[in-house]
Amino acid sequence: EAGVVQSPRYKIIEKKQPVAFWCNPISGHNTLYWYLQNLGQGPELLIRYENEEAVDDSQLPKDRFSAERLKGVDSTLKIQPAELGDSAVYLCASSRGGTSTDTQYFGPGTRLTVL
Amino acid sequence: AQSVTQLGSHVSVSEGALVLLRCNYSSSVPPYLFWYVQYPNQGLQLLLKYTSAATLVKGINGFEAEFKKSETSFHLTKPSAHMSDAAEYFCAVTVNSGGSNYKLTFGKGTLLTVNP
User: A8, A29, B10, B34: which has the fewest Cβ within 10 Å?
Assistant: First the structure.
């Protein structure tokens, strides 16, 4: 079974520019997560989707970040405009169910560098 | 709110030696606990998880962890380290808040190096 796919793997942009990350979860997984991982830190949840619905976006900085999961499959995370502090790895994960014990499967991440 | 503390940001062992990575949790309700491994430029991979069944949990690649409520700990061990075990390890906690109200909270990670 194919894993979680993310693209691009690396992105370098100037500050104030927009950027978008794409995630394709494992087939059949209804729950999708976006995490932010700063250097030397563990991942922190940004948003969680159950199918098309964002059920937890409390940690998403909504002034500049947005996300969508049209049709309940692929998802896109956008930053506009990017700031220097947004440099980090953005991880996407998916799980078959939406409970606290469901295993989350992670993609390789997108490493963003903002200059 | 729940949290985990990983003691030691960097652990170095010799090949064949015991691996012990420490994790302590804080939770007001019974927790579910996880260990993930992250190899360079890869996503996190689940090693094992505790979901209130047996307190000694066996995972992949010879790793195991024991849930100790009295010590609020969930330390990860492996009897004999291999070079291929070199990676970053994350402990994580969540709780059953009912329905879909949950969040997986990660520690800061422990980088394991294995010396030949």
Answer: B10
- In tens digits, chain A (115 residues) has pLDDT values of 689 999 999 999 999 999 999 999 999 999 999 999 999 899 999 999 999 999 989 899 999 999 999 888 999 999 999 999 999 999 999 999 888 888 999 999 999 999 9
The position carrying tokens 């808040």 is: B97
Q: A25 near A33, Cβ under 8 Å?
A: no
Is the Cβ pair B49, A104 closer than 8 Å? no
CB contact under 8 A, A42 and B94: no
Contact B44, A91 (CB under 8 A): yes
The CA distance from B28 to A83, in Å, is 36
B2 DSSP assignment: -
Type of residue numbered B20? L
Of B43, B95, B107, Cβ closest to residue A107: B43
Give the C-alpha separation, B51 to B94, whole Å. Answer: 10
Q: Which of B40, B48, B34, B46 is nearest to B112 (CA)?
A: B40
